[in-house]
Amino acid sequence: MDYAPTFELAPAERKDIPRLAHIHVVACLPDNAFGLYFATPTEFEKGVTQMLEGQVGDPTWQHLKVVDKKTGVLAAWASWNTPTDAQIRERDGKAVAKIADSEKGKGKGEFDFPPGLPTYVQEDTDRWLEKWTSGKRHILCKALFTEPSFQRQGMGNALVKYGNQLADQASLPIFLQGSPFGYPIYAKHNFETVQYLDVDLREWAPSAKSNDKGYGNYRFRYMLRLPRTLPKTS
User: Fold this and answer.
1) CB-neighbour burial class of residue 164 (10 A; exposed 0-12, middle 13-18, buried 19+)
2) 3-class SS shares of the chain: helix, strand, coil, % to 5
3) Considering 66, 103, 148, 231, which has the largest number of Cβ atoms within 10 A of its Cβ?
4) Quick one: DSSP state of residue 16?
5) Under a CB-based contact definition with an 8 Å cutoff, are residues 193 and 221 in contact?
6) CA-CA distances (angstroms) from residue 41 to 9, 32, 87, 122?
């Protein structure tokens, strides 16, 4: 028997930014790595808000929200970026310069906390994207978060399916970075792990080596889904 969904999908608007940022933070709180990105949840939420203010409304970005029908609450959201050819060329040029600079002997110990860990991870992500997407059109899935009280209701699956449909319609691959918490849903929807970064969080967490806070090895998975349609020929 088929059941009607208890939620609906709609484009996110700028007025939704505070709620989107809040969901991002509360969904990440159980994740030890994200806990090291900012000193406090308040600072984390402030950083996400600033990020979203630069994205929502930009034509190269799509932000989709999920609203629970019973309560009317915005419960989950995701975003995708489809850079233009000009943006790809500009990004590739900057990436080459950043990669060259980062390979001049900078080691883990030379990053400050915070934002040491996110800088270290971003540089590795830049190298991966440069390798796989240089000069090529593509889509980046940049975020997908569900408020904990609304998890396991199919909202995340619906968002992933929506993004995959975008990619199939445009005949473009989707790239993303999956956390240990998030990657299973992407694997379920035909994303393949093509590379990964292992990080010992004890090297980044203050006083983690002197007490047990659950820190240890953390794997960032770089994932790819190829489109199910071929590019249109002129």
Assistant:
1) buried
2) 45, 20, 35
3) 66
4) G
5) yes
6) 27, 12, 32, 20
Predicted TM-score (pTM) of this structure:
0.87
Which of the 8 DSSP states describes residue 95? H
DSSP assignments along 112-131, one per residue: -TTTHHHHHHHHHHHHHHHH
Q: Is the CA virtual torsion 204, 207, 208, 213 positive or negative?
A: negative
Q: Report how far apart, in Å, the C-alpha atoms of 138 and of each of 19, 156, 188, 222, 227 are.
A: 28, 21, 21, 14, 10
Q: How far apart are CA 149 and CA 76, in angstroms?
A: 10
12: nearest Cα among 52, 60, 70, 44: 52
Residues 6+ apart with CB under 8 A from 15: none
Q: What is the pLDDT along the chain (234 residues), one digit of tens a residue?
A: 345 689 999 999 999 999 999 999 999 998 888 878 887 889 889 999 999 999 999 999 999 999 999 999 999 999 999 999 998 888 888 777 766 666 665 444 343 444 578 888 988 998 899 899 989 999 999 999 999 999 999 999 999 999 999 999 999 999 999 999 999 999 999 999 999 999 988 888 766 555 556 678 899 999 999 998 765 554
